[in-house]
Amino acid sequence: MNWENMALRELSSLEKYLGLKKPNKYSTQGDKKVPVLQNNQGPPLVGLITIACHLVKEAKRSNLLGESAEGRAVVQQWLEYRVTRLDGCTKEDSKTILKELNIHLQDNVYLAGNHFTLADTLMYYGIHPLIVDLTVQEKEQYLNVARWFDHIQHIPSLRHHLPPVVVLRNTIYTSRHH
Amino acid sequence: KALLFSFCSELQICCRLLFRGAVNGQMKLFVSEGNPHCLKVLAALELTGVKCDVQYVNHEEKVVQFLNHPALPALLLPAGQQLFSANAICRLVLSDPEAVSMADIVLWGALHPILSDSSFTLGEHNSVKTWFDRVAAVHSCQSAVQKVLQGKGLQAMKSYMQRQPAPQNSQCRDAQPCNNNPAEERQHFVSEEECEAAALAWNKGLSSCPAPDRQHPILPQEGKRNVLVTSALPYVNNVPHLGNIIGCVLSADVFSRYGRLRGWNMLFVCGTDEYGTATENKAREEGLTPQQICDKYHAVHSSIYSWFQIDFDFFGRTTTEKQTEIAQNIFWRLHKHGYLVEDTVEQLRCENCQRFLADRFVEGTCPHCSYPEARGDQCDKCGRLINAVELRDPQCKVCRQTPVIRSSKHLFLDLPKLESQLEQWLEKSTSTGDWTTNAKQITHSWIRDGLKPRCITRDLHWGTPVPHPDFKEKVFYVWFDAPIGYLSITANYTSEWERWWKNPLQVELYNFMAKDNVPFHSVVFPCSLLGAQDNYTLVNHLVATEYLNYEDTKFSKSRGTGVFGDMAKDTGIPSDVWRFYLLYVRPEGQDSAFSWADMAMKNNSELLNNLGNFINRAGMFVTKFFEGCVPVMELQREDKELLAVVGWELQQYIQLMDKVKIRDALKHILNISRHGNQYIQVNQPWKKIKGEESERLRAGTVTGVAVNIACLLSVMLLPYMPLVSQIIRDQLNAPQSCVYTMLQGSGTFVCSLSAGHRIGTVSPLFQKLEAEQIEALKKRFGGHTPSTPAAAPAAAIKVAAVEGVDSEKAEQLVKAVAEQGDKVRALKAQKAEKDVIAAEVSKLLELKTQLALAEGKNLEPTSKKGKKK
């Protein structure tokens, strides 16, 4: 397996989190190494989100895709956000994304509202490299994102391939300067 | 705590949702004319007949507030959720599978702008066209097209398209995506020319230039790069923790050692910052004079830094004659040029203690939240800043009497008047010098917020006296006084100090510090020097680190969390390994954390298995297979390739070090030994040595190249691990000139141990750190309130103190006694001065008495650590 590919590592971590006993074998296609899952029963599944949703169903954890029709739509929307906005974003975009998420998470515990879903998992995997690069001060600036991120990374057996990021519980920049 | 937090947030959201649900029980869709994304949504609605209030708005309408760029279509759900993705909306609307599926609608909508154009031909893909036309013929789709495009065809989308941000071409994106896999490191591809160039350089061998000697006093020299390095002056009565050490003295030390290797004319000065209220108070606590306190702790600092092998040219202090002389001179010059203004300040004075109270020596009730134990500068409960005179029921922290408000006349440095000069200088310095990003940002934000006059005098005794007759009883405020310490410390080192400090044309000044110190070095102190108008050397390169945390919390003296400078040596881990790990996690560009487990891992994987293993193998092969003499080397293409790769890593190292990227440069050293290990592994000299003549020659070449790489590594390691670096050269019996040859210019890897060179005795360089050892250390330095949530430590300790929980106090005391005991033993072992030892012994006795009281008199201390020795 090609471990250089982040998407494959994510899928492998997701499998472990979901408690799937037998790891799947993935291949990739195209320059961007889009993951492909060869399925015994049907056509191959292409793309991170499609495969991730499939894994969730396989593990009989469909609640992770949303409880109601509305919930399912919201989860899908954040999964789409992950691949269309977050993946391959530039430094500039990353600030916008963090800003958006920070406002959204101001009154949402999880991305899709009150329940932990697949959207949190994949957004967490995707945003990890951005968070690693934040200074303490920036993490305080995006306090809601940091809070959400810290919460997600401490969910048992979710983190796997990613190192933990230190998020201070107490703010140290109480004022601009002293 | 996290659970509670999420519970509260959930509750809040539930309430909010219930409320919203009650207000509008229906879905509301926002669309805009000419927006192709709306096609599929409207078609889906039409198709399913889902009831929905559709509202037409213009493209700029921000329906989903938190998104930076307006996103349409947007669907507001009765429960308050917002959908801003057309696909997600379709998914919701078309949740039942129909004859025309969601996939059809979504793809049709997405492709409409292209496929509905009749001039667009699909060539052989005409089954796509057939499908598209079939979907487009569905009534719902036609109706959606009519609504969105208003019969104007594709032209209707123009106004929408014009408002979109420049498209991100996913096929060829110029900007590097920033969430790329960090593990994918750039591989250096070696060309034929590079190989030959590397071989040529290799053959040059060592130059015969004499090693530059370091003769004190070091003074600027004509025609040399004269570099003055300062490290932020540590405050004398705090024992520095690892974060302090990496932020200032250690970083500055690595850079100074590196500069000397590069042949620059370096002067590295530092010293203890000794004046101020905190010292006065510490003296009162310990029943000593402030001078005695300073003497005592200056020695503590000195011994810590010498254990960490910080190679100062001079380590001085601020309580000297020179300090008074230079500070007063700068003061008078500022005064003469009209940069000082007078103002009256209201202050709290304790009549009982006969002194004005510094902010941190007042406690009272917070005027904002009524917290009864707010400090004079800030309230611990609500976090707001407080002006000490605003506190209700203020108390002197020392005697608990109520202080009175007195007004006192003070002098202010007129920063606004110096602002334009400052900005001019900053512009130049930050654009030509190497300022870290955080230093530039912090400075910029100070300037942007506007400068205000800053008070430079204080009603204290322990400080540099203000020479002005109207301000006789006062001293200089530490922030004005302390940076002048750099000058006075240099003046105590050499009488010709002005050749460094009043010589901006010949001297380059580097300031090292943690980022909290930036404004004083980039704004305030430069203003003092600019205002004094005496051709002072101002900072050219301001190097500030972020913060180092301890595991996942902050270092805290009061909680006993973290490793402090004086304890590092008691861990049994060598000073060089400490240096290596601290530099490996140097908070360069982002905050980082010290972690025991990580330290053990880095020691075992990087030092032991990678670096140490390679150097040891290279040396052992020479000893075992070639009787201790470097064999003849006949370079093949493969060897030259390695030389080129190693040379490239060396050049990266130099480029990074020149820019003070100390942590990043270290990675290149480790890369070289990784290449070296691979090289040995592939070539297997231990097998080839048993083969025929040509094979034995090959084994010799590989061994010779490897041992020369080991020699290069010793040079590159010198700034980081000076002792290990020297040991390697001793083991290899390497000529001293190799140290100065290879780091000249852009860096060249030369053969410094040529065939026939006899090496010394080779032995392992590093030891494994065992898991149990690390676990024990982690426990020992974990602090005494592990179960208390990190957010409320101050309150927790106060509660314990009020209720007099003796067992906890005893536990703390056991620890303190053990530590103090270690300290005394260490001082005795070092043959420290008698009065220093006596002071520490009396402190130990005092702690033991307190412990006996806390435990009940008959009990013996149960410290395991105390019994060990």
How many structural domains does the protein architecture of chain B include?
A: 4
What's the total number of strands of chain A?
Answer: 3
What best-fitting shape of chain A do the alpha-carbon axes yield? globular
Low-confidence spans of chain B: 1-24, 167-186, 785-806, 856-869
Short description:
Chain A: It comes from Oryzias sinensis (Chinese medaka). Chain A: This is Eukaryotic translation elongation factor 1 epsilon 1. The complex is a heterodimer of chains A (178) and B (869). Chain A is mainly alpha-helical and 178 residues long.
Describe the structure.
Chain A: One of its GO terms (cellular component) is nucleus. The complex is a heterodimer of chains A (178) and B (869). Chain A has 178 residues and is mostly helical. Helices cover 49% and strands 6% of the residues of chain A. Chain A has helices spanning 6-18, 48-58, 69-86, 91-104, 118-132, 136-141, 143-153; strands at residues 26-29, 34-37, 45-46. In chain A, strand 2 and strand 3 form a beta hairpin. The relative contact order of chain A is 0.12. Chain B is α/β, with parallel strands linked by helices and 869 residues long. Chain B has 4 domains: 2-162, Glutaredoxin, CATH 3.40.30.10; 195-220 and 596-782, Isoleucyl-tRNA Synthetase, Domain 1 (Orthogonal Bundle); 225-342 and 416-571, Rossmann fold (3-Layer(aba) Sandwich); 794-854, Helix Hairpins (Orthogonal Bundle). In chain B, strand 1 (28-31), helix 2 and strand 2 form a beta-alpha-beta unit. At the A-B interface, helix 3, helix 4, helix 5 and helix 7 of A face helix 1, helix 3 and helix 14 of B.
Features:
heterodimer; A: mainly alpha; three-stranded antiparallel sheet; 7 helices; B: 869 residues; alpha/beta; Glutaredoxin; Isoleucyl-tRNA Synthetase, Domain 1; Rossmann fold; five-stranded parallel sheet; disordered N terminus; methionine-tRNA ligase activity (chain B); Methionyl/Leucyl_tRNA_Synth (chain B); Methionine--tRNA ligase, cytoplasmic (chain B); nucleotide-binding (chain B); MetRS_Zn (chain B)
